[in-house]
Amino acid sequence: MRPQKLVTLDVEGVLIPEVWINLAIRTGIDDLRRTTRDEPDYDKLMASRLEILEREGVGMADLREVLAGMSPLEGAKDFLDGLRDAYQVVLLSDTFEQFASPLMQQLGHPAILCHQLEVRDDHIVDYVLRIDDHKRRSVEAFRSLNFQVVAAGDSYNDLSMIRAAHAGALFHAPQNVIDENSDLPAFNDFDSLREWIDQSEPVQGS
Description:
Elements: E1 4-9, H1 19-27, H2 42-56, H3 60-68, H4 76-86, E2 88-96, H5 97-106, E3 111-120, E4 123-128, H6 134-144, E5 147-153, H7 159-164, E6 167-171, H8 175-180, E7 186-187, H9 190-199
Parallel strand pairs: 1-2, 1-5, 2-3, 5-6, 6-7
Antiparallel strand pairs: 3-4
């Protein structure tokens, strides 16, 4: 009996726009445009973001307004619906529950594992990771349950998940990430990604 295929996907940049970039556009704070595509160290990136929010007086209410005006990327819901009809799908993200909730509603409430923000009196004072390197560890847990895991993401923080899977690919990744990981297949449209997922098999030795 062949293992059941399970697909894990990153969220921001893959299924929804980058929340922090949208916040940067809305507030005019260019420093917030920096994402995990630019900074591999997630703790360093988040510390910088929280410092900027405090300095500029941007609170949770401002973020809620940004989220209210956001929608999934074009074609993302149809892609995800089709994928969920065929396979088990789990979204693994370094976003936060407060960010994800309204957008997951638009995507049909898929399963998502992510982090939490600590908010006091509308101020975002800290963030709480579910566990360290949760994407990789989630994939390893799914593999231990005898799933054939196929993973895709777009940023540095997705690489451990992608490489821990039986088969992994980049999607909507910037050129620097593609160039530094030239052994990984890279896709820019949902149809090509779906075709690869359907055809993917465990690599030798996985």
